[in-house]
Amino acid sequence: MNLNVNANDIDNRLLAGDIQMDQAGSGVQAAARARILSSSSLKASSDDPVTGFMWFYYINTKVPPLNNVHCRMAVEFAANKTNLQTAYGGPVAGGDIASTAMPPTVLGYTKFDFYHALTKPGGDAASAKQQLKLCGHPNGFSTNIAFRSDRPREVASSQALQASLNSVGIKTTLKGYTAANYYGTFAGVPNYVHSHQLGLLAGGWGPDWPDMYGWGWALFDGQAIVPAGNANISELNDAHVNSLFKTLEASSSQSTRNSISAQIDQQVMRDAVMLPAVYSKALLYRSPSLTNVSVNRYYGMYNYGILGTKG
To answer: Which domains does the chain show, CATH number per domain?
Structure first.
């Protein structure tokens, strides 16, 4: 095992056959991706699984006028999901367009599409304008978008989101922060979020373990809200969601847990506190000399424990 190796060097050595595997499992870089996708032989030794990670935007429930659910729904409908997908790297390196508040790798996932992310991925302006009327802002409103300025994908996705919201009258100002302090000082501090009117905040998340509690308690339970280092950045405090998490915690039946997880997912989306962007995917390459290759269904990485090499 070699540590602290440059990512592009890892890719070059993989493609040359000098090494068999990139343990990080986060996918090849842009240069190697282009080579793989243009070569049938290289593509034959690649995989593009959903990783279990998601990219999305928190929609804060305390920053006016996003404290009105219909204003939040207007954002959900107006966002151009195709442009967000492109900003995160496209369908191969970015991921599949997301329509739910948890990824399909989490137990209890059921497919649904309340805001037409899949049927109208370019955005549903008519439905967005209807929601703007319902929230008392028929001509739109203004808010700020927070993102990590040293993350090129978040810069691109925030610019794409700004453009699509502008098309229905929602005016946004981009607010970039460094990744090192993003959660600890800015996005994860509710008082800062409120005082700086950060209505939309870029984020990403992966499950500690692949069920709704491991995925979503810190994101969606009102009890998870803390003054600093907060992960429930939407500040959702829905009594029904909170109660479902308690029931989920107490249940030992997998079928019951799956049902509760699906209910939480749907209620979170009805509350419109998360704008899903993509279910993250990673283009992985493995040496043709490997045997027993399989992808872990929950984390989208190779199962390292059973790998072997051809004699």
So the answer is: 7-48+284-309 (no CATH), 50-281 (3.10.105.10)
